Amino acid sequence: MRYKCIECGTPLGFEGLCWACRAKHHREEVNNWTTQDIEEKKKLVIAKLKVSQEDEFYSTDEREIFDDLMTRGIYCKEIAKVACEREIYYPSELYYKAGEETINKLIEKLMATESKDEGSTLLRCLAMAGGKKAQDTLYELKINPKPWRKNLYVDSDIYAEEGGWTFDSKNQYIKLNYDKCFSLEPCKEKNENGTFIARKRGEKCSHCGCELMDILVINGKDERFAFLGLDGIITASCCPNCITLSEGISNRFTLDGESMILEYEGIEENYCEDEIINRMVENRFIVSEKKRPLFYGAFNEDVNTIGGFASWVQDWEYRNCPECGKKMKYLAQIHWDTIQDCAEGTLFIEICPECKIITMFHQQT
Q: Are 267 and 242 spatial neighbours (Cβ–Cβ below 8 Å)?
């Protein structure tokens, strides 16, 4: 590479800042928005929605401003109302915690549509809106499906998952994510006595021979993670080579920090050389002192988070626990490029607290 990032020294093919430093500065700017700044940003988004048609809004600067508002925990019912009036349904996060009037309009449109495409889109928006009315509507459409349902790949309870929840056969509400979020921030020194990313296990993968890793260790005794309801050390372990090319890896953990990797279908060739493993382990991420808004890590791949909403690279995905068969809860995400230069995709980690099972899987474009 001919150039280096003027801030961190990362080799670049151009002059200026690398993507990570640009993202860091943008987050700092957004996190420092004043109350007046936020009100002005909301007005910009609403004004653009009022003159946009269907999918036009998605590719505008104002859509990016909306994302930033969400990362600040700003949920605006007026934005949802205007989006609904303009029949703008993407991104579905526009409708997060929408007002009752907007939810009623979404339900009315959903029950009247004859289009599978519109039906699919409205299901996602209702899932994000959440609440009892949305749940009852999605449940009704599951037990009494509309004709267009046969042209969808999944049922309405799967659409509910985009909002971080679902329901069972008796319409009992099931929460699929946590209502608190913390970020993992770069620091001067890594602390393996607390919550951290990546350490070697001292074992080799039986499939490819790669070094096995405890990819995430969470100190559940830390009061910041009391919301997990697990008073102990939670360890998620995997082969960092196989996990990127397999269907996923699960393990059983104990609250004393031990983790047993369950059988998985790995690959034969090892693409993670020792140098790569060493760089992954040398990261210096520590947990943010203060909790973050739920969507803090939901729109970009620059920040690793525990709790809150994920930044799904593809569609949302909640695995079934290999022990009890119930839906697992989304726990954390680690973007590979934050711990391994030029790596692609994201590792998603899910948990069944009752069975003490962790499942993790990889998504990339």
A: yes
pLDDT at position 70: 98
Share of the chain above pLDDT 70, in %: 100
Decide if 334 is inside a domain.
yes
Residue 123's domain spans which residues?
A: 35-175
How far apart, in whole angstroms, are the C-alpha atoms of residue 34 and residue 70? 15
Please give the pLDDT value at position 325.
97
C-alpha closest to that of 160 among 120, 191, 206, 108: 120
End-to-end CA distance of the chain: 25
Model pLDDT for residues 8-56, shown as the tens digit of each residue: 888 898 999 998 899 999 999 999 999 999 999 999 999 999 999 888 9
Cα–Cα distances in angstroms (integers) from residue 153 to residues 170, 286, 340, in the given order: 22, 40, 35
DSSP 256: B
Question: Does residue 347 share a domain with residue 256?
Answer: yes
| Type of residue at 30 | V
Q: Is 325 left (phi over 0), alpha (psi -120 to 50) or beta?
A: left
